[in-house]
Amino acid sequence: MTLQPNESWNELLAGYVLGDLTPEEAVQVKQYLEAHPELLSEVKALQATLSLLPLALPETSLSPSFGAELVQAAESMVSPVSAKDSALRQKSWRRWMVAMVGVAVTLATIGLGYDSYRLRKELAIVRANFKQQSELAQQSNNRLFALKAMDKTQSASGSLVVAPKGQLVLLTIQNLHPLPPGQVYRLWAFSQGKEMTCGDFNANSEGRVFLQMPLEDLLVQTPNVFITVESSKANPHSK
Amino acid sequence: VVLRLTVRSLCVESRLCDRATLKELAQRVRSALQEIPENQRQTLEMAYFDGLSQSEITEQLQIPLGTVKTRSRQGLLKLRTLLQDLVDHQP
């Protein structure tokens, strides 16, 4: 990159990527980026840096009390957003919770159902999810992808770990606007003219997403994945 | 479609991944994190490893919100510099 923005703009760009700008600062940054599109590469580099951060999690085991902490957090969790019916959701949630406790205690990889969660109670889950993503990304045969916003005015970024052996996918996104009731984000895989939905989710109040879902064949085959905003009522599950 | 994200392999975009495993990449990121000032590392770790909000970090560290933001931003900028060969786009 040839153009170096001054120090204060650098910090604002970092804040843009971290999602901690005030509304006024966000407007300023968007206007500045429109006037200086060459700085978008700097934004992308900062997003890529943030995407790498989960890899730096320590490899040490979680404390034995962490399992109980997870259960407690899980029990007080608000209802998740999902297009699946409630019975399946409950089943999926219980399986997921068991999986995360398993990770906490044994650090094993278990592929189970998916869901998305929100609000403060998720903190323990979030911690485990990041740790699991970091560990999965470091195992052989697994793939780590960086997610980039297509719309240059969006500061959302994230990463996706595909773990064929564990038959699961872990999705982490930051700076994604939480959607109002009735709408969901939908993850799609696309390959050779076929597309399929992989899961519905929403961002939490801080714009973060931590999602675990079963591995679909198409996700193994393709690096083409995208996320759209859809009505929560319609999920074609096209395959 | 309001929002659409593309997914690209980090290994496609980075120079290091051609010859390094993800484990080595993880070590590289971990080392970079150790190189930034402790207070900056602390705020990033609390936010992204412990899942704390900035107001919770403010409360725990007993420092102003502006300081938390400044530390996080400067920490990210330093990491970006330290990992430049990994995160810069190929020409």
Summary keywords:
heterodimer, A: 239 residues, 4-stranded antiparallel sheet, 7 helices, 21% strand, B: 91 residues, mainly alpha, 6 helices, 5% strand, elongated, disordered N terminus
Topology, element by element:
The complex is a heterodimer of chains A (239) and B (91).
Chain A: H1 7-18, H2 23-35, H3 40-52, H4 66-75, H5 86-106, H6 123-138, E1 143-149, E2 157-163, E3 168-174, E4 183-191, E5 194-201, E6 209-214, H7 217-221, E7 225-231
Antiparallel strand pairs in A: 1-2, 2-3, 3-6, 4-5, 4-7
Helix pairs in contact in A: 1-3, 4-5
Chain B: E1 5-9, H1 10-13, H2 22-35, H3 38-48, H4 54-61, H5 65-82, H6 84-87
Structure explained in plain terms:
- Chain A has 239 residues and is of the alpha+beta class.
- Chain A has helices at 7-18, 23-35, 40-52, 66-75, 86-106, 123-138, 217-221, and strands spanning 143-149, 157-163, 168-174, 183-191, 194-201, 209-214, 225-231.
- In chain A, the strands form 2 sheets. Chain A has a 4-stranded antiparallel sheet, covered by helices on one side.
- In chain A, helix 1 packs across helix 3 (40-52) and helix 4 (66-75) packs antiparallel against helix 5 (86-106).
- By secondary structure, chain B is mainly α.
- Chain B has helices spanning 10-13, 22-35, 38-48, 54-61, 65-82, 84-87, and one strand at 5-9.
- At the A-B interface, helix 1, helix 3, helix 6, strand 1 and strand 2 of A face strand 1, helix 1, helix 2, helix 3 and helix 5 of B.
- Strand 1 (143-149) of chain A pairs antiparallel with strand 1 (5-9) of chain B.
